[in-house]
Amino acid sequence: MSGTVSPEDAYTAAPFVPDRGGLPALREAAAGCRGCPLHRDATQTVFGAGAATARVMLVGEQPGDQEDRQGKPFVGPAGKLLDRALEEAGIDPADAYVTNAVKHFKFTRAEPRKRRIHKSPTLRETTACGPWLAAELARVEPELIVVLGATAGKALLGSSFRVTEVRGTVLEEEIHGHRERLVPTVHPSAVLRAEDRDGAYRGLLADLKVAARALG
After folding, report:
1. What range does the domain containing 98 cover?
2. What is the pLDDT of residues 133-185, one digit of tens each?
3. What pTM does this model have?
4. Residue 1 lies in a domain
5. Which of the residues 41, 63, 65, 74 could staple to 46 if both were Cys, CB 3.0 to 4.6 A apart?
6. For the domain that residue 66 is a member of, what is the CATH number?
């Protein structure tokens, strides 16, 4: 494994991903990832969290402001809402591995020192970060993947993915060379932004109940 990025690999994390070792080795290596320009402005890499024996893997878009500061995924308002919905759906958050398609916070500022505003990663950036997600899937080998939102869906299933068309259904797809079961739903941050927050939450909960039944 090389720690440098050649021009032809300028947008890929692949040279930084170790061939051996478990999740701790991946997390340590990811801390030094320079596979795309997003590391320049982010505080730190925010790698996935949870046990390698987790039955379900939840994949979101990218870290938010609080995640970037604390170095852990889903610790902000969206994460708290997700934990609540998981528990209500019958999925123990402690039995879930949570991660993001992109491991660095992408943001913009209206003015210096102003609040950092989330900015969606590009397809090129999610593709660059793909080797980390593939490595996490290989280490955890979850029984089910819950896809949280459009960016995660496109990272796993391709650019034609539309969360509104397949949410709340159990899909079986080839992902990084392995047959996986997936349940897509909206990202919890979309619930927080919704005009009808209660209705949006009920929709998320219904989708997670589908995931719970699929886990058995």
Report:
1. 7-215
2. 999 999 999 999 999 999 999 999 999 999 999 999 999 999 988 899 999 99
3. 0.93
4. no
5. 63
6. 3.40.470.10
